[in-house]
Design goal:
Elements: H1 13-21, H2 52-63, E1 82-87, H3 93-108, E2 112-117, H4 122-134, E3 139-143, H5 151-159, E4 163-164, H6 194-209, E5 214-221, H7 227-241, E6 244-252, H8 254-259, H9 262-272, E7 278-281, H10 285-297, E8 304-309, H11 312-319, E9 327-331, H12 333-348, E10 360-364, H13 381-389
Parallel strand pairs: 1-2, 1-3, 3-4, 5-6, 5-7, 7-8, 8-9
Antiparallel strand pairs: 9-10
């Protein structure tokens, strides 16, 4: 549950509509992160003016966390299996990209693979899972959803003898329906787990960029149990840093994402809170799907706009100086996707899953930005996984 530091929203839906109507319109983590003055919103002090606490927070955000996958125990890939990646919604880049990379990894392991589209709603999730069952799936990886979002369909997959491995969600079904409760990341992640770590790094970034005076609007998706943990991690770390507050938390459903109506909620909050200097959203796909443009059109180029997951499109927006998005807490989508396949292989072999350890760090226009393409992380994970699979 989000702490009581989050202030209650004010209602001004019609005013936000009027506001819009009047407007037109991978680099590897480094052990010694760089710092310095950036082209940032007007609310941000220059690096030279930052307090030591704020600079330390920025250093933490830019350095991030991850591993090297050294000394992987061999895990020979079983031959000839049928694999399905169940995307939470192909219209959202942070669903589509990991699913694509999972198929890449499965085919590299010698399997056949394809993607089924969950279409951002529980009915779509269940339909996609049943498509995989009918297609003779041996392994299913659901991308970005938890078991409870499609409990009956996952129970059917279990009854069919299919191995289900986490691709970013958790098995919150009772009884459990997945072979692996979660894909393992790091043994001691910041913030407590994979999801809280995003909020942890985002809070450090926001604290550093505002010199310890965060006034944030958060956008929390509620369809899956893990999604509020992103915001919770942000709030928890702000509390620990002692230099900020959330002035409004906007809760949205996947349906509001699918039809774009969530943007109206956000622009209303921007109007109601001119003091806000940070916006933090569940996934930077929202910026790609119209939110960045809406922030720009609303005249809020002063706000520090932070997303999660580091999708290729969002990184391109940052690289191109797109208004309305400042930074993303990036994780190497391809690396984690290959990690899901590695987890499945080890489970099928009767081996213990390993910590796949993909990199996670903040990317903005001046730090950790790949020269081209998307964020790949800190090591040649493909070569290391392939070697361990005997491919």
């Amino acid at each position: 549950m989000i702490k009581a530091r989050i202030a209650a929203p004010a209602a001004a839906f019609a005013l936000a509509a009027l506001l819009l109507a009047g407007c037109s319109n991978g680099a590897a983590p480094t052990s010694e992160p760089t710092s310095g003055e950036t082209t940032a919103p007007t609310t941000e002090p220059t690096s030279d003016a930052l307090s030591p606490e704020a600079q330390e927070a920025l250093d933490i955000a830019y350095a991030g966390v991850g591993s090297t996958l050294d000394d992987l125990e061999p895990a020979p890939a079983p031959e000839g299996l049928v694999f399905y990646a169940m995307s939470c919604g192909e219209m959202v880049a942070t669903c589509a990209s990991p699913a694509k990379y999972m198929v890449e990894a499965a085919e590299a392991a010698g399997w056949t693979g394809q993607v089924v589209d969950g279409k951002l709603n529980p009915e779509g999730f269940a339909t996609a899972i049943r498509q995989a069952i009918a297609g003779g799936a041996d392994v299913i990886v659901p991308v970005g959803i938890s078991c409870g979002a499609a409990a009956q369909a996952f129970a059917e997959a279990k009854a069919a003898g299919i191995t289900v491995v986490s691709g970013g969600g958790i098995d919150d079904c009772d009884p459990p329906a997945w072979a692996s409760f979660t894909r393992l990341w790091l043994p001691d992640p910041p913030g407590g787990d994979f999801f809280h770590a995003f909020g942890y790094l985002a809070a450090n970034y926001a604290f550093g960029k505002t010199d310890g005076d965060v006034k944030a609007i958060t956008v929390t998706t509620t369809t899956n149990v893990w999604q509020p943990w992103l915001t919770e991690g942000f709030v928890n770390e702000l509390d620990a840093l002692g230099g900020g507050e959330v002035v409004e938390d906007i809760q949205i459903s996947d349906q509001e994402v699918a039809d774009g109506s969530f943007i109206q909620k956000v622009t209303t909050a921007l109007l109601n809170h001119p003091e806000a200097n940070v916006i933090y959203v569940s996934t930077d796909s929202y910026y790609e799907n119209g939110l960045a443009a809406a922030i720009d059109q609303a005249g809020r180029g002063d706000i520090i706009a932070i997303g999660n997951f580091g999708g290729d499109g969002a990184i391109d927006m940052i690289r191109n100086g797109q208004p309305g998005i400042t930074a993303t807490v990036a994780t190497a989508a391809a690396w984690e996707a290959w990690g899901s396949i590695d987890t499945a292989i080890r489970l099928l072999n009767g081996q213990e899953p390993i910590f796949v350890g993909q990199s996670m760090q903040v990317i903005d226009a001046d730090h950790n930005l790949p020269a081209s393409g998307g964020y790949q992380g800190s090591t040649d994970f493909r070569a290391k996984f392939l070697e361990s699979w005997g491919r």
